[in-house]
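name: query_chain
kind: protein
chains: 1
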Amino acid sequence: MLLGLLIERRHHIVSQRQKTLCRIHDQLIALVPGGSSHHLTATSVAAVLRRIRPADDIARERKAIAKELLTELRVLDRQRKDNERRLAEILASYGTTLTEIQGISSIGAATILSIVGDVSRFPTAAAFATFNGTAPIAASSGDKVRYRLNRGGHRTLNRVLHTASKTQQRLPGPGRDYTQRRLAEGKTSAEATRALKRHLSNVVLVYRTLLADQQARVSGEDKRAA
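structure:
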């Protein structure tokens, strides 16, 4: 799937960018008295390098290396922007409404679609929850009903759901309200988050969005073929 190729490419670009930033930081902490910020961008690195006046050959070489790495960083930044533009274009042509869900970015939507593919291969919402690792695992003791973290399932897909759930908990809306109700029932914060992830998987993410999108695409194709 094309989205899968672009997501894989994005992961590579982001990974390389982080490595380049770490190498730049290693040079800057040796060049700048008091060290350098960990929050670096191409713009901030360029500004720091302009202020550095090397006092010896080692410092001059460190600055030269940092400038080479800055060039790499700028290339990676352009590649990341191009990749995200392509992802947005393909998502638009695909006709997904996943990005309308609070906490699901275009990257998250592309990740979900590239992993799930044909959502009809999951006969029920529970089957999908098992696949993505949001299906609860009973850990009750006596009269106390509890569920523990499910470490199975597709972890990348689970991370997308986790990000969406944390975003919804932070911002006003149904997700925060849902979490507050679970906390009022005596759930722990971790249990409430897991419940929200399952809620997103069942009610919002798949069996009302992915299935609806797929049905809309099939309907559109049938109309064009008629």
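note: The chain has two domains: 2-94, 98-225.
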